[in-house]
Specification:
Shape: globular
Strand order of the largest sheet: 1-2
Number of helices: 14
Helix content: 40-55%
Largest sheet: 2 strands, antiparallel
Number of strands: 2
Distance between the termini: 52 Å
Mean pLDDT: 92
Low-confidence stretches: 1-25
């Protein structure tokens, strides 16, 4: 470190403040409940762990749920509200596992600390705990979010889609204050979990005239054969298929190896490799020689903190729901 920097308290303070802002975000902070509800994070962690033991599918479900929540109206738990035309009723959200985990944690938290812990914070903590349970690294989750009062199915159209072009993906992330590196990093969350055949089957049949099997030419031929057997053209569109064919239940970087080898199941995922600008980040996660390497698990935590501060409600905004499925 430059000696002049050490002897300049003002510069040090500015640097420290900027670093803290990246971690804390818009009115949230690590340890928000340390005085008002000390066992909050422990209660969420134990609840997620208990459900995970009987149903491991809740881990990717909770991770996706937090992502879907943050990309629609900000991280305000609007995805959890029941109703006839709420976010929860849409196809991307109705298929998610883990809603019962959030409800269970909320019930326990209301018994321990009534009216204190928001559903939005429960979801942010549960997403982190899900990554840890699948052998990923932990990170400190800033808390202090409040819950939103509006949930509309029509807003879910803003979510990234499996058919999005790379430019559309970049724009949707940029609109939320996230970089291209955040895009590649957060999509790496597909290292755990599954997708329904209906979201990628179109890539397997009559997609191209340049391939003998009619599949997307960017796909590995062996993967096409495997997926055609699992997802027949006239088969059940709701059947679930692993997104990471290398280690679908472990949070690691094999997802990026799959992309390099043409084994991305979703078209939007595979485009992270076919596009040169995003491919560079995939290569850095893979430790390609000549590029400055990135540790996927470390970067994932950093990008999750950024994402979890999108459009948060703090202070007197929103409310603390008594139950997560309904506004007060």
């Amino acid at each position: 470190m430059d000696a002049s920097f050490i002897h300049t308290p003002t510069l040090f303070f500015l640097w420290f403040s900027m670093a803290a802002a990246l971690v804390q975000g818009q009115g949230t902070r690590v340890g928000f409940y340390s005085r008002t509800c000390p066992p909050a994070e422990s209660i969420v962690q134990k609840t997620v762990q208990s459900h995970f033991q009987s149903n491991p599918a809740i881990a990717p479900g909770l991770l996706r749920m937090h992502f879907h929540d943050c990309f629609v109206r900000g991280c305000d738990a609007s995805i959890l509200i029941n109703g006839t035309s709420t976010e929860k009723t849409t196809v991307p959200n109705s298929l998610l596992n883990g809603y019962d985990v959030i409800d269970d944690a909320k019930t326990q938290l209301e018994a321990a600390c009534p009216g204190v812990v928001s559903c939005a914070d429960i979801l942010a903590l549960a997403a982190r705990d899900s990554v840890v349970l699948t052998k990923g690294l932990t990170w400190k989750v800033p808390t202090g979010r409040r819950d939103g009062r509006v949930s509309l199915a029509s807003d879910v159209n803003n979510l990234p889609s499996p058919r999005d072009s790379i430019e559309a993906q970049k724009q949707k992330f940029a609109d939320k204050g996230l970089t291209d590196q955040d895009l590649v990093t957060l999509v790496g969350g597909h290292t755990i979990g599954t997708s329904a055949c209906q979201f990628f089957r179109y890539r397997l049949y009559n997609f191209s005239t340049t391939t003998a099997n009619g599949a997307d030419p960017s796909m590995d031929a062996k993967l096409v054969t495997q997926l055609q057997a699992l997802c027949p053209s006239d088969g059940d569109g709701s059947k679930r298929i692993a997104l990471d064919t290398g280690s679908p239940n472990r949070f690691d970087a094999t997802f990026f190896t799959n992309l390099k080898n043409g084994r991305g199941v979703l078209e939007s995922d595979q485009k992270l490799w076919t596009d040169t600008s995003t491919r560079a980040f995939v290569q850095r996660f893979l430790g390609v020689r000549g590029l400055r390497g990135l540790n996927f698990n470390v970067e994932f935590g950093r990008s999750m903190v950024k994402m979890s501060n999108i459009g948060v409600k703090t202070g007197t905004e929103g409310e603390i729901r008594r139950v997560c499925t309904a506004i007060n």
